[in-house]
Each structure stands twice: as C-alpha cells, then as structure tokens.
Design the sequence.
C-alpha cells in the first residue's frame, strides 16, 4: 500500500508561524496548488482533512469531487492558542510552550496533546484497507504524526520534521508496518 500525504497550500497562519484555526488559503496558496493540478501520482482514493484550507487545496488541485473529508485527519486542536503566533504565545506563556514542546502528553492550551494527535493519526493509518494507493490532503501536524507513527519514532520527534505547504510524504507498507519512502519539498511552479 502507498499513502501520499500532501500538505495543504499556504495560508496566512503558515506564512506567519501561527497556530491555525479553520482558515482559507491565501492567494499565493491557491495559485501554487492550482499549478500542481494534474501532477500528483495516481491513487485509488483521495481523502482530506475537514478544514477549509484542505478542502480548498483539493479543489485547486482539481480533486474537489473525489476528496472525501475524514475527521481523523483534522489538524491539531491548538485550543486557546488558535489564531496566535508562536512569538505571541511565547511572550505570554513561555512555560506552557516549553511544556508542550517537551512533554508529548501535555496540552497547556486546552486543546489536543501530541500524544493524542499521534494516536488519532496512527489509528487512521493502521485502519486503511481496501486500497493500494491513497492521497490525503492534510495539515503539517498530521504529516509529522504519520511519519513518527510509521517509523516508530519517539513522540517528541514531531518537532524534528519540517513540512512546507504542498510538500509530500510518501509512506509504503501495510497497516501496522510502514516505511517512509520519501519526504518531498513542494514541486517548482510550472512555467506559464
């Protein structure tokens, strides 16, 4: 089985290093995703996170009709930090950020812990059956969690994986036995 995890296109939060809520793509994100239309690998199924940004990315890629929203693929719930930049949160609650970054079970923001995110994404990944290849349009946190689950890394490893807008992670294997095949940066824009 092959799972291609595609990060959503750019949003204002991804450009300002903010904790994202349910926000739309920015103009550059729509343009970049549209430029990728038709260049993705062949798959048997397309799924996406339920967020606006993932829905708009799928639409810009020409996959709106095929992309089924899956609740398990929702981005991390950042609770009270949603909509704020990392610098703002660090300025107001440095101990809470340190706790969240060093203790995977902590959720000082009142949202989801990294441990809970890893469990949710791992459960989805290990529950995949009946398809040989799937494309999932998701948030960077979901891609990080899937990689950590696949390679059985320590939970704190999520912070060691950079995931840019429109980058792809490719996992291969079977439920419960995954390997990371590739982590690809966004494709360069095609000349017009």
Sequence:
């Amino acid at each position: 089985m092959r799972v291609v995890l595609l990060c959503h296109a750019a949003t204002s939060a991804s450009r300002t290093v903010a904790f994202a809520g349910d926000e739309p793509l920015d103009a550059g994100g729509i343009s970049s995703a549209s430029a990728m239309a038709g260049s993705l690998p062949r798959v048997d199924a397309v799924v996406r996170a339920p967020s606006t940004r993932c829905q708009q990315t799928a639409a810009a890629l020409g996959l709106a009709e095929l992309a089924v929203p899956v609740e398990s693929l929702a981005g991390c719930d950042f609770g009270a930090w949603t909509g704020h930049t990392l610098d703002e949160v660090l300025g107001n609650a440095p101990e809470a950020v340190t706790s969240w970054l060093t203790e995977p079970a902590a959720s000082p923001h009142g949202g989801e812990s990294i441990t809970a995110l890893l469990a949710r994404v791992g459960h989805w990944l290990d529950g995949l059956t009946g398809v040989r290849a799937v494309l999932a349009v998701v948030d960077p946190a979901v891609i990080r969690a899937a990689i950590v689950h696949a390679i059985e890394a320590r939970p704190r490893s999520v912070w060691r994986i950079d995931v840019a807008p429109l980058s792809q992670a490719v996992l291969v294997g079977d439920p419960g036995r995954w390997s990371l095949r590739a982590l690809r940066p966004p494709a360069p824009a095609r000349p017009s």
